[in-house]
Design brief:
The complex is a heterodimer of chains A (about 450) and B (about 325).
Chain A lengths: L2 E4 L9 E7 L6 E2 L4 E6 L4 E5 L4 E6 L6 E3 L3 E6 L6 H6 L13 H10 L32 H4 L20 H9 L18 H9 L24 E5 L2 H14 L4 E9 L1 H13 L7 H15 L5 E3 L3 E5 L4 E3 L1 E2 L4 E2 L2 E2 L7 H16 L13 E5 L18 E15 L2 E15 L5 H16 L7
Parallel strand pairs in A: 13-17, 17-18
Antiparallel strand pairs in A: 1-8, 2-4, 2-7, 3-6, 4-5, 6-8, 9-12, 10-19, 11-12, 13-16, 14-15, 18-19
Helix pairs in contact in A: 4-5, 8-9, 8-10
Chain B lengths: L2 E3 H15 L3 E5 L15 H5 L4 E3 L4 H13 L3 E5 L10 H14 L9 E5 L15 H5 L5 E3 L4 H13 L4 E5 L7 E3 L13 E4 L4 E5 L3 H13 L5 E5 L2 E3 L3 H11 L2 E8 L4 H12 L9 E5 L8 H7 L3 H11 L4
The chains are: A alpha+beta (about 450), B alpha/beta (about 325).
């Protein structure tokens, strides 16, 4: 039995992928789980792995080419198995149908027209790169545009897989009952169809958080265990607050709390540590991350997710840290940050930032955060407001740390200070709750010895 | 419980009804002296005499019409066709007379008649004598269509068919006549229009009728060894069809294979799939797959005939497909 290799949705929001590099040649033996190719998603460069054992008989997407999720990328089969019909199904063959195991789909394609032109005029860089059309019936018959494309690129039908989720009716119903976003679920059926077992797997994996597209839903590795959180149904007052304030300011009624912390002792501590040796050097940001994580562990009411009909209070602290990359913002996650030593946080933060810039983060490294921190201090920003990473309750925006003239005990003195602004989702956090959290954070930052307590 | 053949179950049903009601009589080719082409009416002539067990000439349209006339004047004929393939000649009486009479007479004439005989393919009877007609008959408002797969169902349903005041087409199977099953001595009736859940399972429904019930049961046995549990829904009555039973099963399993002996286009399975998509849309985890005869006249050559018929491997492959196992 041959195994088809599809362009898979390697990130929850991925709709197409660029095949960066094949890691296996045609004729190579491959095992299930082994990496076949590197694929650039909308977020990172990921590995496309084999879903079956055998010989990689055919590679159907050229290196450098982009193909929609669900496109047949290759065929794994035994050495002597006849794979002509499978390969003919790819865009390489003129009249072929798509990878269409289901009779129904095949029939659709036959009906759609037995024209002998490849059906993806918009992707016509070469034979092998012409991915099979997933849903031919939906695409209006196009002229033989392979030749015409360069001169007349205009009327290109949208790639069928764009933004489209294939799912069984049952899967759709189950997803809606469980508040799952189908975009966050990977389909294991034909053509990536999401079926019941995928919903069950996703639900088990805790993909339940309806996250905004930009924040990437948690993928399989994020497995909340029993006791990691507790859900609380919304009280009437929370419901009303959510409704009224949502009407006022948008889907996430946000308010902002700004505080200025004194960093004198943080600086003293850093200096003292640095004197012990290079391995003890930590940045101000590392201290702030650690302090935020510890404060969150003491304020579970802030370490929470908005799930629409309930609030999920997390017992573990997974701290997201916004990282600017050339491609844009991404938020890698330091897991259990409150329980990690400062040295671990320092090392992990550096490593995650580096991998983020190289676009090498795996999905479980940028999903699952319970609260996030954004730091623009290095750009000399005094203070700013960050936008909440839904469904989190808040985000902490950290400005630059600098020497300032402040009044202490009636005397003007020069002190190192930092301004933080917390954006709070008012549906979860009220002003006083956020303020108390900042109070704790201030205590920790202004008395950093407490962080080792 | 006694184990008897499908053939004897049918014979017992007609005999009991003839004993019970002297308006019931049997008519057809070779039913009396020869005791039935498939020996369903063994001993009937001796027991009931030639007024109630009537041999006819080879004139399907003629004796079907005599039957309709007899029903109009109050008798309850059981018309045996040597095979439903021959009944094509009688279809004008079945479709235009029997099925329409109640309607066109403004309710004045009930037609309590049973047309019965073997349906579908046996072995190497070639293209003209291997056809399954249930979708043709079930298409007609005014007809009831029954296709039992077991001796128990055959007896209980035939007795109900004979007692029904409407024309009933009763489809047996040449390959079924010798199959055996438990049939109680005491009298029982099976209501028309009720499916039977022949086997319970949670993974996939096979919806079928007639001879293919046996194939479905074998498929279920075999798949059970892989841990796949099949709901086998035996429709038993094609028209009126038990939509609730289909829906209940498919809503439970989320997957269905529809198995029938006849051809694909406009077949019984097409109707079943229509009910499923209407009633169970939000419960489906996979497209419904149909298993049926190849879209060709039945070949005479043994190998080709085997290839054309729906069978166990095809049924199992279909289940595996809707289960996303292949």
């Amino acid at each position: 039995m041959a195994t088809k290799v599809f362009m898979e949705a390697l990130s929850p929001t991925m709709e197409e992928g660029r095949l960066v590099k094949w890691l296996k040649n045609e004729g190579d033996a491959v095992k299930s789980g082994e990496a076949l190719a590197e694929v650039e998603t909308d977020k990172a460069i990921m590995e496309l792995v084999a879903r079956g054992d055998g010989i990689l008989r055919k590679r159907l997407i050229n290196e450098g080419d982009t193909a929609p999720v669900g496109t047949l990328a290759g065929v794994i089969a035994t050495a002597d198995e006849n794979i002509d019909s499978l390969v003919a199904g790819a865009g390489t063959a003129p009249a072929g149908g798509a990878p269409a195991p289901a009779q129904v789909v095949a029939t659709q394609q036959e009906t759609a027209g037995a024209s002998s032109v490849p059906r993806r005029p918009e992707e016509s860089q070469g034979e092998a790169s012409t991915p099979p059309q997933q849903k031919v019936a939906d695409v209006p018959p196009a002229p033989p545009a392979r030749a015409a494309a360069p001169s007349a690129p205009a009327p290109t039908p949208a790639p069928a897989a764009q933004g489209e989720v294939r799912s069984s009716p049952l899967a759709r119903r189950l997803a809606s009952e469980r508040g799952l976003d189908l975009h966050s679920v990977q389909g294991s059926g034909p053509n990536g169809r999401i079926i019941k077992r995928d919903i069950e797997a996703a639900a088990a994996a805790g993909a339940a958080a309806p996250r905004a597209a930009a924040s990437a839903a948690p993928s399989a590795p994020v497995i909340p265990r029993e006791g990691d959180f507790h859900d609380e149904p919304l009280s009437q007052i929370r419901k009303t607050i959510a409704k009224r304030l949502g009407e006022s300011i948008g889907p996430i009624p946000t308010f902002y709390l700004t505080a200025e912390f004194d960093l004198t002792r943080v600086m003293e501590m850093r200096k003292a540590m640095a004197e012990l040796g290079d391995q003890f050097k930590v940045s101000v940001n590392d201290v702030l991350l650690k302090a935020t994580a510890v404060a969150l562990s003491q304020h579970p009411e802030v370490n929470a997710h908005w799930l629409g009909d309930k609030i999920r209070y997390h017992n573990r602290v997974h701290l997201g840290m916004a990282v600017a990359t050339d491609e844009g913002l991404i938020v890698p996650v330091i897991w259990d940050a409150d329980r990690k030593r400062m040295s671990d946080i320092s090392r992990e933060a550096k490593e995650l930032a580096k991998r983020a810039r190289e676009r090498k983060l795996k999905p479980d490294e940028f999903t699952g955060s319970t609260f996030s921190v954004s730091n623009l201090g290095m750009f000399g920003i005094d203070q700013f407001t960050a936008i909440i990473n839904p469904p989190e309750a808040g985000i902490l925006a950290i400005g630059t740390s600098e020497e300032k003239l402040v009044v202490v005990d009636g005397e003007p003195v020069v002190r190192n200070r930092v301004r933080v602004t917390m954006s709070c989702d008012h549906r979860i956090i009220d002003g006083a709750v956020g303020a108390k959290f900042l109070q704790t954070l201030r205590r920790l930052i202004e008395n950093p010895l407490m962080l080792v307590f | 419980m006694p184990v008897i053949t499908y053939r004897d179950a049918l014979g017992a049903a007609i005999r009991e009804e003839m004993q019970r009601d002297d308006r019931v009589f049997l008519m057809g080719e070779e039913v009396a002296v020869y005791q039935g082409a498939y020996k369903v009416s063994k001993g009937f002539l001796q027991e009931f005499g030639e007024m109630r067990v009537v041999d006819t000439p080879i004139t399907e349209l003629g004796f079907a019409g005599v039957g309709v006339g007899a029903a109009m004047v109050g008798l309850r004929p059981v018309i045996e066709f040597m095979t439903w393939n021959f009944a094509l000649l009688a279809l004008d009486q079945v479709v235009n007379a029997a099925a329409k009479m109640l309607y066109m007479s403004g309710g004045q004439y009930k037609i309590p008649i049973v047309f019965r005989g073997p349906n579908g393919a046996a072995l190497q009877l070639s293209a003209q004598h291997s056809q399954a007609w249930e979708s043709w008959l079930a298409h007609i408002p005014g007809l009831k269509v029954i296709a039992p797969g077991t001796p128990y169902d055959a007896k209980g349903l035939l007795k109900s068919a004979i007692r029904d005041d409407n024309p009933v087409c009763f489809l047996e199977g040449e390959m079924l006549y010798n199959t055996k099953g438990e049939v109680p001595d005491e009298e029982y009736l099976i209501p028309l229009g009720k499916a039977d859940l022949k086997r319970q399972g949670e993974h996939c429904s096979i919806i079928t009728h007639g001879k293919m019930v046996l194939v479905a049961m074998q498929a279920a046995d075999q798949l059970a060894k892989e841990g796949i549990n099949i709901d086998v829904v035996d429709l038993r009555t094609i028209r009126p069809m038990d939509v609730e039973a289909i829906g209940e099963s498919v809503r439970k399993t989320n997957r269905a294979v529809v198995l029938e002996e006849g051809w694909e286009i406009c077949g019984v399975g097409a109707q079943v799939v229509d009910y499923i998509q209407r009633d169970c849309f939000d419960y489906l985890d996979a497209p419904v797959i149909r298993v049926h005869q190849a879209d060709t006249p039945m070949p005479y050559a043994k190998g080709l005939e085997r290839a054309a018929k729906p069978d166990l491997p095809k049924a199992i492959a279909a289940v595996r497909k809707v289960m996303y196992l292949d």
